[in-house]
Amino acid sequence: MEREKNELPPYSAVANPEWPRRHRAIRRSRGLRVVALACLAFIVYAQWRQIHRGPKSSPTLLSIPKLQDDLEVCSKLRSKPKDPIGAGRHRNARYIDGHKPTLIRNATIWVGEPVKGTTAEEARAGIGYSWTYGDVFIEYGLIKKVEKNIDANTLSSDTLVWDAKGRHLTTGIIDMHSHSGVNGLPGLVGNDDTNELSADITPYVRSIDGIDPNDHQLEVIKSGGVTTSLVLPGSGNNIGGEAFVIKHAVGKPDGRNETSAADMLADPDRNWRYIKMACGENAKRVYGKAGEQGPTSRLGESWEFRHAFEQAAKLVRDQDDWCAAADTVGVENMDRYLPQDLEWETLGAVLRGQVHVNTHCYTIPDLEAFVDHTNEFKFPIRAFHHAHQTFLVPEILKRAWGDSPPASALFADNMWYKTEAYIGSEYAGKILYENGLTPIYVSDNPVLNAQHVVFEAAKAYDYGLPYHAALASVTTAPAERLGFEKRLGKIKPGFDADIVVWDSDPLSVGATPVQIWIDGTAQYENPVELPKSINPRIDMSKVIQTTKETPIAISHLIITGVSKSFIDAKSASEGHGRQNLTAVVLNGRVTCLGTCTEEIQTAQTGGAQIISLENGYMTKPFTAFGSLVGLNAIDAEQATDNGGSPDVFSRGVDGLALDTKKLHYALKYGVTRAISSPKYSAAATHQGTSVGFRTGAKHALEKGAVFADDAAVHYTLDLHAKTGSTSISNAVGSLRRKLLEAVESNTTASDPFSESAFLQRVVKGSLSLAITVHSADVIAAILKVKRTVDDAIVSAGGDSSLRVVIIGGAESFIVADELAAANVGVVLSPLFSYRTTWDQRRALTGAPLTNGTAVDRLIEAGVLVAIGLEEDWIVRDLGLLAGAVYKNGGGKIDQSQALDLIGANVYKLLGLESEADKGDIEEFVVFEGNPLEVGSHVRAVGAGLGEVKVFEYE
Ligand SMILES: *[C@@H]1O[C@H](CO)[C@@H](O)[C@H](O)[C@H]1NC(C)=O
Ligand SMILES: *[C@@H]1O[C@H](CO)[C@@H](O)[C@H](O)[C@H]1NC(C)=O
Ligand SMILES: *[C@@H]1O[C@H](CO)[C@@H](O)[C@H](O)[C@H]1NC(C)=O
Ligand SMILES: *[C@@H]1O[C@H](CO)[C@@H](O)[C@H](O)[C@H]1NC(C)=O
Ligand SMILES: *[C@@H]1O[C@H](CO)[C@@H](O)[C@H](O)[C@H]1NC(C)=O
């Protein structure tokens, strides 16, 4: 709402009937209005006295220059920012003199908007969008021309020419929720400036005051094609402070002339300001102390918000009154300075419409309360972040104050980590879009690695969001919400020259930039380019169907249109490797794979259901190794968790808790088995024995529910091992001592399920020792322990050796040859480390910065590798993660070997091979589409429990 001068409160309250309404708009408080009237009356009186004493006399000791400065401030207070212009600029304000113009030739271009003449309705449906062929000319940090066959002779002679070789070219990706720079990686106490936790309401702090240009993650993020990020303060506070939009070009190596946060600002003119607020669990958990300080509840949080806005509204009113009076009587006649208050200045600017508000709110009550605040205090909100439940309540979003409903900034499928994240849907983006709202995909870096934020958009597409909307969700949509609609997000003349050329369709698995320009300057001199053939484009017109949450159970099935099968059904009578196979399932078992004429008849007689696929894939089941599924329902809620502590060694099988939402989703995404160990202290730590179980089981006594009571013995030697008085050296030594004691021990433990009993099995080689560890140094120490213990076993007359498995393994590639020589395998967890912790700081983050990642180096060295889950929500993504290894591996492994990373290899590592082979006939997954690629989905799962679960289309 623009506040023109003539809208301001008049000198005389009664003269203009407009003004009481305006005040009611700020705060429906009669009392305050009376106070304001009294103030005004006083000002009138004071000015009258000044005027009558004559202009030359000095009524007060106020400084005239200061009063004049204050009057300047009035005009700033009254100004309402507009989106900065794009077209019409000769040069980008961020352009650095001397940088040469560039012609990018032969690109397949995504402009970011539909062709001219497309109606808004058609555009929303994706009509008019396409990849087009052409060249892009950039100069002075701007895109100047996007045309077919730009003639290089018409350009200045110093123009650099870059051949895109037909590859995909998009605008730079925009991540609208990042903490990069303020939450430096690897995370250390000294570099964490995410939240100012001195108070719950800190609108007065600014992320720019903590942005560290040396945070290497800023570069890692860019290597994924992200050129722009909104750097927000954390969500510990209800009002966390000001946020800033930066570009990921830092210092001289990136073509800048200084290394500073100011130099990174996307808009050096700072037209818009940004603020971060947060509802829900965090603030009450961080601040609430019963009887001492709030908020302890969402009720208290709303009070904190309203109280803060009330202070800001009061400041705004005082200022407006002063400015109006100064206009009327002449500023030199004022007898006080403009009321200013740094504490409430930012919130005042929010109420003046100068600040883009971004608020973290997950649940319906949070969303509803915050929308209520926007209407009470009359300010718009640009986006709800972590907006998990927005898809359930589009109408609440639509009643937010302002011209346009807030967007929803989301993860594609990261959920269940706390109560407010328990309800969520991977279809949220699609549903919001269908309701006329805007989904935006974000990283919350370091929660997710922003390097791969485009993968969030790819998954959103996988979950049914139309292709053009998925690409918009990380380009044009965040550009618009940030107020950069005319500058960022499109490949059009007048836009900033932030450009990415990709090695494949950006929404395909493993898409990686080959070169990136920021403000017209190429960011890499020698980028590593993956050996990849230019992939066929994704067919963007194809509607990706979504399947129902709940499957139906069926015993007889005929599946037609299977193009590729990775299962090895022994009873399958006919050959493999042919297209368009038919699979017949009788009583939950695959009885035939091929033409199957006879079996089809039997199945038809038995009333089989038919699933006809266009491009069907059948695979072995996927296995979730190393997560907490089966032992936990909501990560942060103790009541839902098995629990764990460094002092406790226990068996996972004794803590199994089945039939949870996590397990239902595991099954839905083809993960029919999991191997989970009790945790040591935190998620992704392990101690005790892991249990191997089937994710579809209702309880542990169901036939087939548990396939391995004790799959491996686990210890944790990552940074968590350094708890209390324990050092890493002590933890390694303690493990060695326990193993040597097990070698020496010649008495049978009285409790066959005790730690020492399991360790005796470990030193006899009948049970694996799985160690959670990232650091190459600690892995080296473990390899020495293995040598010592193996020697002791030989001295004691044994002939076994320890079977060791590394879980985590961010730095394992550094000792890849040594691991291979010791026959020690690695479960990469996460698959792609991004150096979040000190002991992962040497991890490889991939092209274009590094030549491959840990998985490439390990496979090349001959180390047996599997993919683990460092967080439980990843159960949905195992196929795509394996796909990324396959696609970016340069042909090292084939598709079948990629699938082994999330199945067979886990069993090989643990010495449970016979178990892996067992399930083929009754444990399988049927996909429409290639499970290693975006756009596939599970249609049926043989869960190994006697029936097949069929997922029907919505
Ligand atoms: C950096 O470049 C900008 C834009 O060309 C210029 O205004 C500024 O003075 C330069 N700073 C330094 C330290 O050279
Ligand atoms: C564009 O690149 C493709 C793929 O490399 C190539 O086949 C084609 O000849 C190129 N076209 C031009 C005009 O260079
Ligand atoms: C990356 O590593 C692979 C395997 O070691 C090697 O063949 C390839 O040449 C390397 N590529 C680059 C660009 O260094
Ligand atoms: C695949 O096989 C089924 C059953 O044998 C047949 O009906 C269908 O037409 C075939 N489709 C193609 C594309 O060959
Ligand atoms: C057990 O080992 C100890 C020490 O190695 C030895 O003295 C003792 O005789 C052994 N006892 C048995 C029953 O083998």
**Percent range of helical residues:** 25-40%
**Architecture per CATH nomenclature, i.e. the level-2 architecture of the largest domain:** Alpha-Beta Barrel
CATH fold name of the largest domain, please? TIM Barrel
List all distinct small molecules, including ions and cofactors, that are bound in this structure.
2-acetamido-2-deoxy-beta-D-glucopyranose
Entry keywords:
Urease, subunit C, domain 1; binds 2-acetamido-2-deoxy-beta-D-glucopyranose; 34 strands; 4 domains; TIM Barrel; eight-stranded mixed sheet; 954 residues; alpha/beta; hydrolase
Q: Can you give a write-up of this model?
A:
The chain is of the alpha/beta class and 954 residues long. The chain folds into four domains: 2-9 and 20-53; 173-488, TIM Barrel (Alpha-Beta Barrel); 547-621 and 920-954, Urease, subunit C, domain 1; 680-686 and 711-918, TIM Barrel (Alpha-Beta Barrel). The strands form five sheets. Strands 1, 2, 3, 4, 5, 14, 15 and 16 form an eight-stranded mixed sheet that branches. An eight-stranded mixed sheet has the order 6-7-8-9-10-11-12-13. Strands 17-34-33-32-21-18-19-20 form an eight-stranded mixed sheet, covered by helices on one side. α8 (298-329) packs across α9 (342-351) and α8 runs parallel beside α10. The longest helix is centred in the first third of the chain and has 32 residues, at 298-329. It is globular and about 100 Å long. One of its GO terms (biological process) is N-acetylglucosamine catabolic process. It holds the Pfam family Amidohydro_3.
